[in-house]
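Course assignment 3, question 2. Fill in each field.
Student: A.L.
Task: Predict the tertiary structure for the chain below.
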Amino acid sequence: MRRDSGRGSGRALVALTLCLALCAGCVQPRYRLPAVLGAAGGVLAAGGAVSLVALADRQDARMAAVTTMALGISALITAAVWLGVVIRCQTALDCHEGEVCQPVPTSSGQSYGVCAPGQ
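Answer field:
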């Protein structure tokens, strides 16, 4: 195996991360930070999985790959919870201009509000 093969995959990972960060600029400002955290978590989880396969014969490398995957998965979960908190509303005043708070019923009979584009 060539010695510089890890350098190419590192460059691809940096390029993918930069592309995701630039695309996050298109996301509505209210959801931008959870989106960036989710994208970073996805990159970390995928990078850890790929490196786990490539470095399976070394114990220290396996541990680093599993740690990276766990960090990525926890970032994805955190982003999902954060986004769930951000999209909730109780009145239309909680939403941005042009959005209305629409109640969404749940199976337990309670409802929570979600900001949606106004008509």
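Instructor remarks: The chain has a mean pLDDT of 78. The two ends are 60 Å apart (CA to CA).
Grade: pending
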